[in-house]
Amino acid sequence: MKTAAGKTALITGGSRGLGRALARELAGAGWTLVIDGRDAAALDAAARAIGGDVTAIPGDVADAAHRADLARAVSGGLDLLVNNASTLGTTPLPRLAEQPVADLAATYATNVLAPLALIQAVLPALRERHGAILNISSDAAVENYETWGGYGSSKAALEQLSNVLAAEEPDVRVWWADPGEMRTDMLRAAGEDADAAPPPEEAAAAFHRGLIDGRPASGRYRAADLAAAR
């Protein structure tokens, strides 16, 4: 494993699931980390479990003041931004004919607008270090799964935002990546059999090795493909 002393990553949604798993991956490689999460107690517990040089900032990425706090925390330099925090939106997941539009607006605020706003806030620092942005997507962004239209469309919007950003920012790597099903609270809340899914550590390891260390060209990637290419 490559060591990354002197490198800094900002990971949203770092208190559980894929965010926490990826933070542990990077901490083990010597990265300095800034993580956030809405549940302050869970975030503090995650920071202790991750170990290493970790700054935990509780808050909601949809809140502008919180994003400003995150940007200040990495003002000394940033090599990687991971937009991992997201919401399912309405649960149980409804068909589009019954999707509350107000809920969908809130989903877009968290899953699309907040990542863009955070990118805008830290992009100068990423440009300076020729850093990278990893936007966590989903197969629901490209598949027509019934009842997943609200969440899936928000991830599709994030993917196209990433696609255009990659064209506009040639000095920064921009990856939008599908981790696949994972054993997470989010998958369980969606009504899926989360216990049958692989742990998020598998996707985290694939992203660490195949994207963050490997630094391929900007584009869309799947954790399963990155793992298979090992």
From TrEMBL:
Keywords: Oxidoreductase. InterPro entries: NAD(P)-bd_dom_sf (IPR036291), Sc_DH/Rdtase_CS (IPR020904), SDR_fam (IPR002347). One of its GO terms (cellular component) is membrane. PROSITE patterns: ADH_SHORT (PS00061). SUPFAM superfamilies: NAD(P)-binding Rossmann-fold domains. The keyword Oxidoreductase applies. This is SDR family oxidoreductase. The lineage of its organism: Bacteria, Bacillati, Actinomycetota, Actinomycetes, Streptosporangiales.
